[in-house]
Amino acid sequence: MRFGGIIALGGVSFAVGRGQICGLIGPNGSGKTTLFNCISGIYRHSRGDILFEGQSLSGLPRHRMAALGIGRTFQNVALFDSMTVRDNMLVGAHHLGRSGFAANALRLPGPRREEAQARGKLPELLDLLDLRAVADMAVGGMPFGTRKRVELARALIGAPKLLLLDEPAGGLNHGEVEELERLLRLIRAHFDLSILLVEHHMNLVMRVSDQVVALEFGMKIADGTPGQVRNEPEVIRAYLGE
Ligand code: ADP
Question: Per residue in 168-196, pLDDT tens?
Fold first, then answer.
């Protein structure tokens, strides 16, 4: 991935196993967000390829990626404050659903079926993410940790096979990070999905990930179990800046 003359990502290659949690780490500017944006189709990489279940994602429109089963959250929680938790989740079903914007706008049968499926999944997700008590309350003014859970629920309602989480622990306090760790394990076990996690909270990444990939200057410097990556001299050097 190039921006003008800058190679933001070059020669980064790794695989995420089915049902695994893969943590993506690296100092600021190492290319984590760029990689996420390439995988979810926001950026178009100039070389290389990204495969999902053997199929190339290069050049696919974003709604097709959602249809294949790739969901994501964003660093800055963008919920609709005046809408209830329940309705915010259903918005996720439209945005991450199986059809494009045009089909939704035209109210074709596909989107209606998606909405019905999403409504069917609501009770399970409300329970799993401990949101049932606030399901019919407006999201505005809710504690940050609750909003993060709504955002997770909104991503999950699209039934992703791969969930891209962009700094889910950002802004959370210690207790909320522990709660997030519990939720990530629960989600993975419950839905049999894979998670790619960009996260600065190193303890969380190391505890929750099956695999950790470390980037620096747009290149992969380590890839392995948390124990392996934590002890990798290149990673220690990158973080300590030696
Ligand atoms: P990280 O998420 O690891 O902090 P980024 O992916 O944001 O890193 O940035 C990787 C590199 O790509 C940086 O050098 C950054 O300046 C550059 N970059 C990212 N996005 C853009 C953009 N839209 N235009 C130009 N350069 C960019």
Answer: 898 889 999 999 999 999 998 888 899 99
CA 173, CA 241: separation in Å to the nearest integer? 27
Q: Hey, whose CA ends up nearest to atom 13 of ligand 1? A: 29
Q: How far is CA 230 from CA 21, 23, 34, 213, in A?
A: 16, 12, 23, 10
Taken in order 211, 216, 220, 221, the sign of the CA dihedral is: negative
- Residue range 127-134: mean pLDDT, rounded: 95
C-alpha span between 229 and 241 (Å, rounded)? 16
Q: Is the CB of 33 under 6 A from ligand 1?
A: yes
- In three-state secondary structure terms, 109 is helix
Decide whether any atom of ligand 1 lies within 6 Å of the 38 Cβ.
no
Region of 33 on the Ramachandran plot (φ > 0 left; ψ -120 to 50 alpha; else beta): alpha
Residue type, 144: F
Record the tokens describing residue 239, joined without a space: 């973080």
198 backbone dihedrals φ, ψ, rounded to 5°: -95, 125
Tokens of 237: 């050097």
In ligand 1, which atom is closest to the CA atom of 198? 2
Mean pLDDT to the nearest integer, 50-56: 94
pLDDT in tens, 7-26: 999 989 999 999 999 999 99
**Residue 11 DSSP code:** S
Spatial strand order of the sheet with 70-72 comes to 70-72, 162-166, 194-198, 21-25, 211-216, 219-224
Residue located via tokens 């909104």: 154
